[in-house]
Fold these 2 entries.
Entry 1:
Amino acid sequence: MTLHEDLEAIYQDVIRRNPGEAEFHQAVKEVLGSLGPVVAKFPEFASERIIERICEPERQIIFRVPWQDDRGNVQINRGFRVEFNSALGPYKGGLRFHPSVYLGIIKFLGFEQIFKNSLTGMPIGGGKGGSDFDPKGRSDGEIMRFCQSFMTELYRHLGEYTDVPAGDIGVGGREIGYMFGQYKRITNRYEAGVLTGKALIIGGSKVRTEATGYGCTFFVNEMLRTREQSFEGKRVLVSGSGNVAIYTLEKVRQLGGKVVAMSDSGGVIYDANGIDLDLIKEIKEVERKRISVYAERCSSSKYLAHGNIWDIPCDVAMPSATQNEITGRDAETLVRNGCIAVGEGANMPTTPEGVEVFLQAGILYGPGKAANAGGVATSALEMQQNAQRDAWKFEETERRLQEIMRGIHETCVHAAEEFGTPGNLVNGANIAGFMKVAQAMLAQGLI
Ligand code: NDP
Ligand code: 2IT
């Protein structure tokens, strides 16, 4: 992708100032790739150096997380919180616990989060955090001690009006609960709105657990509707088998589609009859086991160790595991096999080469910052309920989520059209997300 001349200079500066952070460079390049027509139309963004400011996090926190494992050994991990942009509201974004986490991952996620949160239309800024801690194989006690140590440093940077974390890979309701308990203990404040993704009993919102997967499915449904299509009878691939993947499966089924394959980092399960939702929930949410166990218990399914899920023919692909999981070659395979729509539940799951293949082929392509925004949008609904000391019903909350996803899709479609690339939702999402943040920054002066 070639960038507009001024944007290329900004991009080169980002590379120079952030060496070795490949994922962050990739995320920045993708957004800058959409902004050529915007800087041409709004010269004040250049004179006020809005884009350079957006590319520089407002604050970056890196800290030591010491904890004791079950054998009495001392363990040391590294914790991160990147408070990227607060033009639209308090920093908001998840925490990722995964051994691959380093500053470049947290910065790519935090950067994406700015535009995603802007697209939701809710008053939330962008941030992200996490640790290189690997939760796999750790006992409940170890997870709790790690979360408590992590929060013992992080708490001083948080607050319902300052910075509000939630979950991401490796962080779900259990971890949020342990962190919330430690925050309350240190601060002596029952400040429900300081974390989202809480269990219902401690101020969580109905539908937050389901929200990212449901939202992504709603988004794909909106895309399909533009071509007089629906999920009815469609074969769907959903990579991953975590929170986003499971609730994508649930909603796709409700809308008449059939998820024929899922995966984890070890392999792929395939079931032409459609994956059994209850069995997946039991194995992943209750027993916390690997997806290979599914094939042991379900005779109509096959386990493909180290298999590539994107080799399986499908109508719709919903990557819901991790970044760069669809390569250019995978994208070509999907298109060749007749895939008509891709909705990204994960953050940046498609490489730049893959994105190019989808756009060139003219298939429906919903980029992560639009398609997976339902999770953070429902987090913002959780913050609203906490502020009101209220708890809404499931149906009402889901209705709001669906409305928000419809709105995001419409916003992206309009922005893509207005700036000369109809149907290109990458440009639509980047431009619409950027415009609100840029205007809010201008309104607040040079800060
Ligand atoms: P979970 O931890 O619940 O599940 C992650 C799943 O992805 C697991 O099946 C995991 O397999 C797989 N996975 C993770 N890393 C890798 C890797 N490096 N290679 C192969 N497989 C991998 O996380 P979530 O479902 O919450 O998150 C999934 C994606 O969705 C992430 O990209 C996240 O950023 C994004 N997202 C999440 C939101 C949320 O609300 N939770 C909101 C918006 C986006 P294994 O167990 O083998 O590691
Ligand atoms: O990537 C994401 O949007 C999330 N992990 C959810 C963030 C949130 O604050 O709910």
Entry 2:
Amino acid sequence: MKKKQPASVVTGAAGFLGSHLTDLLLARGHKVIGIDNFVTGTVDNISHLGGNPRFKFIQQDVSEFIFLNEPVDYVWHFASPASPVDYLELPIQTLKVGSLGTHKALGLAKNKRARFLLASTSEIYGDPLVHPQTEDYWGNVNPIGPRGCYDEAKRFAEAMTMAYHREHGVETRIVRIFNTYGPRMRLNDGRVVPSFISQALQNKPVTVFGKGLQTRSFCFVSDLIEGIFRLMMSLYNQPMNIGNPSELTVLEFAREIIRATGSRSKIVFKPLPQDDPKQRQPDIARAKKILRWAPKVPLDRGLTDTIAYFRTKI
Ligand code: UDP
């Protein structure tokens, strides 16, 4: 008997992570229906899929009712602005997609009896007082600060996901995504990776915020997507951190980008944005144990691929 092709819906399919996830699902034999309204995503990220008979695209805001005729086995909810600069510019859309959009995507999963995965975030932990961050830490979030629209929308989304699980028996998964980088990030999205790389490639000053002593831990996109795929296919319904635990300061990261690009850029210091988390590093013991997953791509290799991509965009 011919094996059934699984059918996946990816919201935010034209975004950085959504498009890489779509590629992986297609490579693993899924049919994919991608949904995106191009607020922060771009058609360039999915144009290579034109003509693929297993890929269908719907241009829609997922905060509106999602109507689909066909059966669906998996709903991957990735739609949202994800850069602090973007959600500062789009606070209401960010709140809407995290709340109403998650509600609609969960409704679709319930209706289709599909499994649902929420792309949540390390921002759940806010400016964390526990380091590294474990999934049982409840976080330290300023609800009314500039990042509150994203952090609280995602916290609401997690609560909604668990409510659909408990009340309606929807099979749900929650991934808390830590800083991720790779090809298809938007050059001007304001996040540290595209900012530093584009500045360095043009020999312009590299803008370190604050003293650059705040830390981040960067995961290459292929590692992240593999971890997320394993989580969806697992039986685990509690939140799961996925990220790379190798932590460095933003200043160290700036120096690394200047080295990796062979740039003549100098470092300049700019004011630290409000509520910028001072430290961030995922504890991935849970993912290691349950998913048998750990990141494999070292920073220098991931940066080589990412820099090569940005060279084509500048
Ligand atoms: N950052 C920086 N210079 C920039 C952009 C960002 O120093 O041009 C810092 C920012 O203050 C933060 C870190 O880099 O401490 C990561 O910022 P990003 O916007 O990538 O995302 P976040 O991890 O804060 O959500």
